[in-house]
UniProtKB/TrEMBL annotation:
It comes from the Bacteria. InterPro entries: DPS_DNA-bd, DPS_DNA-bd_CS, Ferritin-like, Ferritin-like_SF, Ferritin_DPS_dom. This is DNA starvation/stationary phase protection protein. Belongs to the Dps family. Residues 20-154 form the Ferritin/DPS domain. The lineage of its organism: Bacteria, Bacillati, Actinomycetota, Actinomycetes, Mycobacteriales. Pfam families: Ferritin.
Length: 160
């Protein structure tokens, strides 16, 4: 009788899947770094609440990037999270340097989150075709980031 372990075949990511996950990784890493930059340099009305909310976004991006990098390793792909790689290859809008008012930070970081989600959604279907388990991870990250974008963008919404 053959056991599961004996019959299991290790899944290896194709170069396309590895490349897609690499793009997700650098975008999530950039989101984490840019979220921290915003956290350190936000000023104005509702500072404290936004300061804390930005840390929640940073934590979500950092944890998600770790999940993606570890999935890449499980698929025998090599993640590249070096600073130069992240800086040169992420697809997020540039975050301007310096201090920014809370309302501006809300819009800037919401745009960052939404750009990361665009990347995730852009690779999801290809990923699902090759590895549904990895697509499930992407789906969970999408849900988490879309919720963060909604919560954050609501800071600037008004009725009317």
């Amino acid at each position: 009788m053959t056991t599961y372990i004996e019959s299991a075949v290790a899944l290896r990511a194709s170069s396309r899947l590895a490349g897609n996950l690499q793009q997700v990784l650098v975008d999530l890493t950039a989101l984490h770094l840019n979220g921290k930059q915003a956290h350190w340099n936000v000023v104005g009305h509702n500072f404290r609440d936004l300061h804390l909310q930005l840390d929640e976004i940073v934590d979500a991006a950092r944890e998600s990037s770790d999940t993606i990098a570890e999935r890449m390793r499980a698929l025998d792909a090599v993640p590249d999270g070096r600073a130069k790689t992240v800086a040169c290859t992420n697809l997020l809008p540039e975050l301007p340097a310096g201090e920014h008012d809370t309302a501006v930070i809300v819009d800037l970081v919401t745009a960052q989150i939404r750009a990361a989600v665009v990347t995730l959604r852009g690779v999801h279907d290809d990923t699902d075709a090759e590895d549904p388990s990895t697509a499930d991870l992407l789906h969970a990250v999408i849900n988490q980031l879309e919720k963060q974008a909604w919560l954050l963008s609501s800071e600037n919404r008004t009725l009317g």
